């Protein structure tokens, strides 16, 4: 027997969808505006997970140019049936409207590594789509609808349509399965079968601290559906001090050893000193975003219950199988010697191609071509990875020769187009190359080094940049020789790069650290990055 420590997928990895093929286990998670879309992780023991696929890796599958912040990929559903994997996903195009607007698609593949098919359009009338494969071979499409109809709570309906896979077509007949509990915001639906019952699992309460998992059952898909005796199977709402909060959006599976587990969305808030718990952005600030946890289930009287109580637990018992040998090293170093980007790295909305950069123009370096600024939703040359720890150091070595004040390159800590900081080199009349910092805080800009930028000596070929994150704050440093480091005497609030700070808890991603190059002069420029490292530190 071994224990599993939560979260199992650290950093921004929300909306987990569990899937099993034989003795192999997979989790698909949401990626929102980050490209490629959807991340699929693999495990043999439910404890150790590795990234094995980012399936939506071409524009024909996912065209997000211009998508809003926290648009893009919402809540994918991964399943295995008929000798192949099935992946449903939503590409959300509008978020700031009375009802959202998105497009749903289905792709298939013989293995999670691909090749993945071209997408089948599944309609625009809802989100969080799921595919249920019945034992009689029929398939059903389950989702949360949206649209302009007025009613008291527009967030609490789950609808089912039959899907005819050979014709690649949905039935026009729709059946409402569930209209929600008073928690509202009913979404993230999945259907399972066990011992003569169909089970409908949904997320409710919204995706913040009130989040919960609700289960119903029926002997037929037509209902009637009976609500779980305790209504909520999982939530942390009743335990404000619990270290794992926002727990919900569950996904079930039975292991090959006959045990049941549920993956779920969760977050780890940081508390602000001197601020009462319930006043701190709800219960705190989650700069690492919404992560993935797992828990064991037990069945009583035909109902699933979370072992140990319905709250999310930091440690859970693993299944009755051999624990895998861990291969994950949390210290991460990318030297850009390969032919493609490291899979830990993502771009914003569009693929990494010849318009954004190159790994071959300067061998051993990542070359980024100057494009839009960090507040653009179109062509940004940004290559970034998730914050996965509360305490870490990220570093790069950069070669850059700007010739105009509209050209810059450097290191960014980024949440979305309206919330980021950027430590960069540019060119200034009368000074030459300088190091500066810009911060965008809820779309309000600040230039703290405007009057006293840091001069870059003419004979310096490379500049080293570093950011140190220490729980609630972070700061930047630089070096002109890679040995002697100078701390820039400015401190930034790490907690501001969180869902809880952004737009009053209205967004869905997490903090990233990345490399960026921009040029709005039209003259053309590029920056070369020799390496990119991420090293977590021991957390007290």
Commentary on this structure:
The protein has 540 residues and is mainly β. Helices cover 0% and strands 47% of the residues. Strands 25, 27, 28, 30, 36, 37, 38, 39 and 41 form a nine-stranded antiparallel beta sheet that branches. Strands 29, 31, 32, 33, 34, 35 and 40 form a seven-stranded antiparallel beta sheet that branches. Strands 11, 12, 13, 14 and 15 form a five-stranded antiparallel beta sheet that branches. Strand 16 (187-194) and strand 17 (197-204) form a beta hairpin. The protein is globular, with a radius of gyration of 24 Å. The model has no long low-confidence stretch (mean pLDDT 95). GO terms for molecular function: xylan 1,4-beta-xylosidase activity. Its EC number is 3.2.1.-, 3.2.1.37. Residues 334-535 form the Beta-xylosidase C-terminal Concanavalin A-like domain. InterPro entries: ConA-like_dom_sf, GH43_C2, Glyco_hydro_43, Glyco_hydro_beta-prop_sf, Glycosyl_Hydrlase_43.
């Amino acid at each position: 027997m071994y224990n599993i420590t939560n979260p199992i997928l650290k950093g921004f990895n929300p909306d987990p969808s569990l899937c099993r093929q034989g003795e192999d286990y997979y989790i698909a998670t949401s990626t929102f505006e980050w490209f490629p879309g959807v991340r699929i992780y693999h495990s043999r023991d439910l404890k150790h997970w590795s990234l094995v696929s980012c399936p939506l890796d071409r524009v024909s599958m996912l065209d997000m140019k211009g998508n809003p912040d926290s648009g893009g990929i919402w809540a994918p559903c991964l399943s295995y049936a008929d000798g192949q994997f099935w992946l449903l996903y939503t590409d959300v195009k509008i978020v700031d409207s009375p009802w959202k607007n998105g497009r749903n698609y289905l792709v298939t593949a013989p293995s999670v590594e691909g090749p993945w098919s071209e997408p089948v359009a599944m309609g625009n009338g809802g989100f969080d789509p799921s595919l249920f494969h019945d034992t009689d071979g029929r398939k059903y499409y389950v989702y949360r609808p949206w649209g302009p109809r007025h009613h008291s709570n527009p967030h609490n309906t789950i609808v089912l349509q039959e899907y005819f896979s050979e014709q690649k077509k949905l039935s026009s007949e729709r059946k409402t399965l569930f209209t929600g509990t008073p928690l509202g915001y009913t979404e993230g639906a999945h259907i399972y079968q066990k011992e003569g019952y169909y089970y409908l699992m949904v997320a409710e309460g919204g995706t913040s601290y009130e989040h919960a998992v609700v289960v119903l059952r029926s002997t037929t898909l037509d209902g009637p559906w009976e609500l779980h005796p305790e209504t909520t199977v999982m939530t942390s709402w009743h335990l404000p001090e619990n270290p794992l909060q926002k727990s919900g959006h569950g996904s079930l599976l039975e292991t090959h050893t006959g045990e049941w587990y549920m993956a779920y969305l969760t977050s780890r808030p940081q508390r602000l000193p001197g601020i009462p718990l319930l006043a701190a952005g709800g219960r705190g600030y989650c700069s690492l975003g919404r992560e993935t946890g797992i828990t064991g289930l037990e069945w009583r009287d035909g109902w699933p219950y979370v072992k140990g109580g319905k709250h999310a637990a930091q440690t859970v018992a693993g299944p009755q199988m051999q624990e895998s040998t861990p291969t994950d090293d949390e210290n991460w170093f990318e030297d850009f010697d390969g032919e493609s980007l490291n899979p830990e790295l993502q771009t914003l909305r569009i693929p990494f191609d010849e318009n954004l950069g190159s790994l071959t123009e300067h061998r051993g370096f990542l070359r980024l071509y100057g494009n839009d600024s960090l507040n653009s939703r179109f062509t940004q040359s940004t290559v970034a990875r998730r914050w996965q720890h509360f305490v870490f150091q990220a570093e790069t070595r950069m070669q850059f020769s700007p010739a105009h004040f509209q050209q810059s390159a450097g290191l960014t800590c980024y949440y979305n187009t309206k919330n980021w900081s950027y430590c960069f080199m540019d060119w200034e009349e009368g000074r030459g190359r300088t190091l500066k910092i810009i911060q965008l805080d809820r779309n309000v800009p600040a230039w703290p080094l405007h009057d006293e930028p840091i001069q870059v000596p003419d004979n310096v070929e490379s500049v080293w940049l570093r950011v140190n994150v220490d729980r609630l704050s972070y700061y930047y440093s630089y070096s002109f020789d890679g040995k002697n480091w100078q701390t820039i005497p400015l401190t930034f609030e790490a907690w501001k790069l969180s869902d809880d700070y952004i737009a009053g808890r209205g967004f869905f991603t997490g903090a990233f650290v990345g490399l960026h190059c921009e040029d709005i002069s039209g003259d053309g420029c590029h920056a070369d990055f020799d390496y990119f490292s991420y090293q977590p530190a021991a957390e007290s």
